[in-house]
Description:
Layout: H1 2-28, H2 38-47, E1 49-55, H3 61-71, E2 74-80, H4 83-92, E3 100-101, H5 105-114, H6 126-131, H7 134-137, E4 149-155, E5 157-162, H8 177-180, E6 189-191, H9 195-205, H10 215-229, E7 232-235, H11 240-244, E8 250-254, H12 255-264, E9 268-271, E10 280-285, H13 293-303, H14 306-316, E11 319-320, H15 323-328, H16 331-334, H17 343-346, H18 354-357, H19 359-373
Helix pairs in contact: 2-13, 4-5, 10-19
Amino acid sequence: xxxxxxxxxxxLFLGYMILNLTSVTAIxxxxxxxxxxxxxxQQAQKEGKLHIYDWADWWPEEIYANFEKKFGIxxxxxxxxxxxxxxxxxxxxxxxxxxxxxxxxxGMIQLKALGVLSxxxxxxIPNAVQYLPEENQKLIWFxxxxxxGIPTDSxxxxxAYNVKYVDSTDPRIGSWGFLYEENPYAGRITMLDxxxxxVGNALKYLGYSYNSDNxxxxxxxxxxxxxxxxxxxxxxxxxxxxxxxxxxxxxxCWVGDSYFYHQELDSIRGCLPKEGTEFGVDPLVIPKGxxxxxxxxxxxxxxxxxxxxxxLILGIGYTPNHKATREMVPQSFKDWPGTIIDExxxxxxEVINEKxxxxxxLEMRSKxxxxxxR
Length: 374
């Protein structure tokens, strides 16, 4: 009986995969790839290498392997674990020899301010020109017209919770209050080890701007976070082990991470809080010290082709920032909270800006964070 059940389940799964692949392939036929000009391809293959500086253990490895196989270009990768580490690298060496890097929006803002980014040759990235959605571009104040970076995805913050241990009928689920205010899960909560995120989303919960530099508002946040601190088991930006081994039951995270956790552990659910959060993007950029600029453009164009970008989005669980990928992802992906964002929710979100990143806003956030982590 058990063997029959396993065989039946396997056939059902294979049938689902074939049907889904057929659907994606049919949709993909509507969205062609736009190859780079011959001069870019020839120069890239002459360069022969591509040095990438990106996040560790994030993008599907097949993306890198398939690029090498398709174009005969060897990829050499170096990884970073946070925006702060990333920015520090270029502060120490503005001409660091990387061809392509993948910061978050905050990292790109800081690198652009340092003057270490190269302007993109749009003629060499036709997929990006064709497929980037206009409405999202309006929010990216720090890079008008994608002059310096190509957003591969969009991101939002929320939290994951394990329904084996967390009461899924609690009416506070759906709000940041479930995470920031008192609840029965003390010692089972993780928060991102990201100052701007933890402070910013507390501001959103209290009804203020994510980028507030108002002292009274930020002191309210400090009090809220200090009360929460005794219930937090860890400030960790990648608490994969804690979540999947079910030591942590409630975890502040990127929406894409909650989707990833659910693929590994069925009892994980995700929440995109009703108060709003940060809207951000993960752009591919080319530093000014890039030794292989044509290969860099070739890689960006490759990642922004419809099928590769769909592979990327399904691998990381983030929100598509690509016209074709929005159509090509399956319905099961679209149904996960926060993967497809409507205009009404987007209006509640904010892009991080100078009020938080500089001056009084940065100074007060730093003091709150230092006190919180003491």
